[in-house]
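Quiz preparation item.
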């Protein structure tokens, strides 16, 4: 999984970025080396630590990054679910998986100070998930968007961590790349 449309945006804004995969790291990267963390999607589920043991280390890294260090975070799909779990929510198998272009609804209560500020109230986005965040007990979490089948499509935690269940990073090559991902 890559940054898709965000890669060109980051480069054009003259920022440096580095991609790393917890699945191939012996030790987590130093938090002092980075200003922001983006966690993308993947074919695994957050509860599959036995199958993907590196998820344990990635979850601890995200929890420390967001809760203790309060550094900027953005998560997409699996990254969204990992943030939800780090914030104490449950991530469960979806009753109705969302695959394809589906409508989401922006929560206007929080739209003035978040990443959906200039978006229409409802829009079609590319979905590809069969798991979802089911609830929150933290009052510092704001639900920014939902859909008919998934109540937490986007969220913010305080003013430094944001995530989306859908895939805003998609570019022309994305679907072809997804199709070629081997089944794990």
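Solution:
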């Amino acid at each position: 999984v890559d940054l898709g449309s965000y890669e060109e945006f980051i480069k054009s804004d003259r920022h440096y970025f580095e991609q790393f995969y917890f699945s191939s790291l012996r030790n987590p990267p130093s938090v002092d080396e980075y200003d922001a963390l983006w966690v993308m999607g993947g074919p695994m589920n957050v509860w599959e630590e036995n199958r993907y043991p590196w998820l344990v280390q990635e979850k601890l890294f995200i929890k420390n990054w967001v809760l203790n260090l309060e550094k900027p975070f953005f998560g997409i799909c699996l990254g969204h679910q990992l943030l939800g779990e780090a914030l104490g929510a449950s991530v469960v198998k979806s009753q109705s998986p969302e695959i394809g272009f589906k409508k989401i609804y922006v929560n206007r209560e929080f739209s003035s100070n978040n990443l959906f500020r200039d978006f229409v109230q409802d829009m079609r986005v590319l979905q590809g998930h069969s798991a979802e965040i089911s609830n929150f007990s933290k009052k510092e979490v704001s639900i920014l968007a939902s859909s008919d089948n998934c109540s937490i499509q986007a969220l913010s935690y305080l003013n430094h961590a944001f995530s989306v269940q859908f895939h805003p990073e998609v570019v022309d090559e994305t679907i072809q790349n997804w199709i070629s991902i081997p089944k794990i």
